[in-house]
Amino acid sequence: MILSQELSKQLKTLSQREGATLFMTLLAAFQVLLSRYTGQEDIVVGTPIANRNRDELEGLIGFLVNTLVLRTDLSGNPSFRELQTRVRKTALDAYAHQDLPFEKLVEELQPERSLSQNPLFQVMFVLHNTPGFDLTLAELEASYLDVGRNTAKFDLTLTALEEKNGIGISMDFRIDLFAPETIERMLGHYQTLLEGIAADAQKRVLDLPLLTGKERRQILVEWNSTEREYPRDKCLHELFEEQVVRSSEAVAVVCQEEQLTYQQLNARANQLAHYLRKRGVGPEVLVGICIERSLEMMIGLLGILKAGGAYVPLDPNYPEERLAWILRDTQLSMLLTKGRGIQRLWHQATEVICLDSDRIAITQEGEQDPVCQTSAAQLAYVLYTSGSTGQPKGVLIEHRSLVNYLSWVNTNLLGETNRRIPAVSSLSFDASLKQLFAPLLRGEEVWILQDDIVAEPVTFLRTLGDRKAVGLNCVPSLWRSLLDLSYFAEFPTESLTGLFVGGEELNSDLVMKSVAKLQHLQIWNLYGPSETTANACAARITSAEQVSIGRPIANVQIYLLDRHQHPVPVGVPGELYIGGHCLARGYNQRAELTAESFVPHPFSPEPGKRLYRTGDLARYLPDGNIEFLGRVDRQVKIRGFRIELGEIEAMLCHHPEVGEAVVAARENGPGEKRLVAYVVPEQGRAATVKELRSFLQQKLPDYMIPSTFVFLDVLPLTPSGKVDRQALPEPDDSRPELIEGYVAPSTRIEEALAEMWAQLLGVEKVGIHDNFFDLGGHSLLAMQLFSRVRGFFQVELPVRCLFEAPTIAALEMVVLNSLVEQIEPKETTQILDALSDS
According to the model, what pLDDT value does residue 380 have? Predict the structure, then answer.
């Protein structure tokens, strides 16, 4: 690449005006480029120097070149002129010490060495500006030969060469780190930066232009051209009522042996809606619903929406304190439940309606559709997610956002074929939206699986096979656990052609494992936080080599931006922002947090438009698909659950015997994360692991309970006084600190079970009285445990029995009883003696 003569002249003039050299100006621009690509403010670059700083050395034959290390601070977003001054001082200081050999500097600093990296710097900058000369020899003709280089000495080397027709710029690079097209884009961005610098050196470095006009249009406009028609003025229940007219006698919802047709479901939902309206439910009125997956749950949801209200899901499995907080935060006027529901919390709601005990009163209402009083801009539901401040936060979703999402699901994700996908998600998670509502808008049946079926892997897989499930929507960690089960091979998979995963990162190894076992499987990777109505991006995964979250769905826009909300180039990490018809209204009763998370849209000409800051890091791939990279904050996803670590830390610190607490997510293996709590006890006090776990179980859902607790005298700190999370020690897996004393296995059954627990839980020593869940066990690990029990002992046990027998000593008796039931009476004594061997 050669810079034009005009630009080259402008850069030289700028250098002279600022008392700098062309080398300093080009270096400063290169360091801006590196900073914008990496997001770092401390940039270190190496450069060669001739080291002939005396006249008497000029004609000396020999290689005197030394290497200087130039470190520049770009913090504070200085103007380019300010940065030039910093670079000038750094360069002059380096020139003053150019006699110090680079090797001596490395020896003194003693950096951590690696065979794959150059010490102190990995990027080189070179400017060739020595005047050329003609090589003439008597009676000989001579010419220069470019011998070329096949090996890059550094990760990246930018070389500038002053020529008659302008400044030539080239780059050498390591091919295992960079693709040629990446370097080509980088050179273009360097030129764009230099043009911006020449035009206005007073601009701050983060405001200097980086993208070419073509790139900017592609990223902001072309890749966000997602406009699609959908019934934007309709509410969900109105679309359902239209479908009832078309499919009145078709089955609408199935749960075990019960079912309702579209006409029956609509009639019962209408009766409930009229009943609710008489009790004050209307637009923007929040109604709690605490019902396990069932026909009544569907009646309740539709009844609330038809009455004009917005539903607030309350998971009956959540701890009482968390449910009570949600009730207080929403100030619910009404709670819809079934049976006993959550009677312990009834006193916090103004009115409680039980769909079974109040059934007679409800059926006295009319079956006709209520007149719709709700607009598409009013609330459909409020979903509570983990909050970084220590309390959950309620996401407010309007009908228009929900209808847009469901329209995309039915048109683009599910297509024209009947997708028999079981509803397995709790109402408290947005995955339930596509499972429960999308079929109702297609005239298909909603297939609801109850908790006890989903919790038992054998029953779950058998049910999927018997009912010939066409698709499955779950989190990757659950799918991985199902694949790893020994009896997965017994599952009839012919009908299962669609896998829809989301809620956490999808790894390439899981894609390969899935395709190896089910070659006909189509895998969709879905991405999107609750604040954007479930899914904002989707990708059909066709290769394990490139797993992405795809592109934005209909009427959704995605922007990858730097810290100053400037779009980043292809391949450069940026924070993921989401805009469009999917956005939530904000957070319930949290105006400040709403303003912080839902920011003004910098690229929209329409006033009032907003973007949601996800806190996720991602980058564009050359084809426009988006690759997920991780988080910019401390939010994590474990087994599909969104968790703010700060919420767990806040709860731990409420314990009277805890002085300080830090929670981290550590990865045991691909897709296997666990929460680890680091606790500094209050002076003179020492809570046990069991006490802390029991304390948290009263306040947080099970998925937020750390699997491991590590007690420290003090938390490691950085020089600035903050917690040094990188210095937190690895948990000692030899044996967690439990209240029970260690009792070694003494029978063959105990030894076999202890070995299984140790392998699954990553613990070296397991005693027969140790609790599976106190050792860090959870439901997915329980599934794997019972798969191994089934394979080893040839007995089939329900996973729920582990909650009743959570120790090896107790589980041994369950295994023995099951074995006894399978054998002839005369063989019982002989077999038990052999198994016990004690």
Answer: 97
